Sequence to fold (156 residues):
Amino acid sequence: MAERIVIDTGPIIALARADALGVVAELPIEFVAPIEVRDELDEGVRRGHPAVAWIQFAPLAIPASPLVLAELDRGEAAVIQLALEQRISLVGIDERKGRRAAGAAGRAVTGTLGLLGRAKMLGIIPAVRPYVGRMQAMSVWFDEALVRRFLAGLGE
Fold:
């Protein structure tokens, strides 16, 4: 059975800007997202962004808590809620607040860089640096120290 991850809109946007959606689609991971993320992605498609066919969408059984919604955006809150409901231990969120909240909810967190790193480790891509460069050129922001440590950890 493939590993499962509940993914937020942020990593999908960053991966699209890096032209890496196809790379991540090759990972042996089942990507799941709440309907709230689908709605955000559908809005992007209406604006000309690429559609993403490899994500399975699922509704929440219980709406996200108003307390959580006061701190996080709708998509991040729904991602954490869906992960809890479906007992999926890993979430894909890039934003710092969302990552902290997911960790507090007992979920492991990865993001755009982690998914690209996994693709390199599995031999799907030879290097991550070109994708990071494309994201940065397309105004996707990552902490520079984090990027340096991440690339160094991958031998780049």
